[in-house]
Amino acid sequence: RLWAFHHPELPGLEGPPWDPYAHERHRWCALTAWYGCPADPDDVRITPPGTASPAPGAVVLHPGAQAPARRWPVARFAAVAAALHRAGLPVVVTAGPGEGHLATAVAARAGLPPAAVLGVPRPLAFDALCGLVAHARCVVVGDTGLAHVATALGTPSVVLFGPVAPSLWGPPDNGLHRVLWCPSRGDDTARPGDPHAGRPDPRLLRITPGDVLEAVHTLLPATAGAGS
């Protein structure tokens, strides 16, 4: 049986209407509910893996994203990493597949040791990545998959948005997460930019290292149990 949203070009296909402004969690829970399987869009937590963290209690910075439009500049990630390191906080930089050059550049500019880069030369296995995030002090990340891992594991996070509004993809408003987004004047859509563009979105570039550091420090009291 096919479960789908209704489409006007397919009048014989049942399903709920498509709402282009719905948050993704609410969108898909509404679909299953329409077919008789209610789901809670705020029930996002998963059980942390038993895998030990390679850096318990660290602040995790993840500079990568699938497209350049959602990648905050390396120099700005490095400025945040250096400031946190100077403040005495343990900092690690993670790399996904094909992102080793980004993580390595952030660590080098920040004056971090090579051991602070995780996922090079081979990406971390998913259970190891989840172990790292589950026991992190905080995660700083763009609008990409690792942000959702932090949400699912209940790890405090600072998430940087650019071409797509956090109203569509942002974490729950439960006090554990800080969302940074600087829309343009006159933006009247939740998708004002191209998430697959080849250069950083201008909304993302309006976020400064100072903005991120302020957000991280507001979360530090919420990380008292991290790394346990």
Structure in a nutshell:
The chain has 228 residues and is of the alpha/beta class. The protein is built from eight helices and six strands, in the order αβαβαβαβαβαβαα.
Explain the overall architecture.
By secondary structure, this protein is α/β, with parallel strands linked by helices. It has one domain (59-223): Rossmann fold (3-Layer(aba) Sandwich), CATH 3.40.50.2000. Helix content is 32%, strand content 10%. It has eight helices and six strands. The protein has helices spanning 24-34, 74-86, 100-110, 126-134, 145-153, 166-169, 202-205, 209-219, and strands at residues 59-62, 91-94, 117-118, 138-142, 157-160, 177-180. The chain has a six-stranded parallel beta sheet with strand order 3-2-1-4-5-6, sandwiched between helices. Helix 2 (74-86) packs across helix 3 (100-110) and helix 2 (74-86) packs across helix 8 (209-219). The longest helix is centred in the middle third of the chain and has 13 residues, at 74-86. The protein is globular, with a radius of gyration of 19 Å.
Task: List descriptors.
228 residues, alpha/beta, Rossmann fold, 6-stranded parallel sheet, 8 helices, globular, disordered C terminus
